[in-house]
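WARN no homologs supplied; continuing
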Amino acid sequence: MTNQIANVGILVKDFSKVSEINAILHAYSDNILNRSGMPYREKNVRLIHVTMESSPAIVNELNQKLSALNGVSSQIMTFEL
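OK structure emitted
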């Protein structure tokens, strides 16, 4: 299967999930090209942006694991190579 570039946006409302998010992202570190995060204090949330290159199956697997956490939501935007 062809690899793609994927941008994964993660919105964290429950800060107690941060260690779980980090563990999930660490498991995909071979595919991650860039990761950045920032607090959005005015809205009391945290935003994380991850850029990765991998197969669609791996991107979807990551998204499902993140979305399964209560207080965390994620969305994917992909680009075919």
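The chain has a mean pLDDT of 96.
OK
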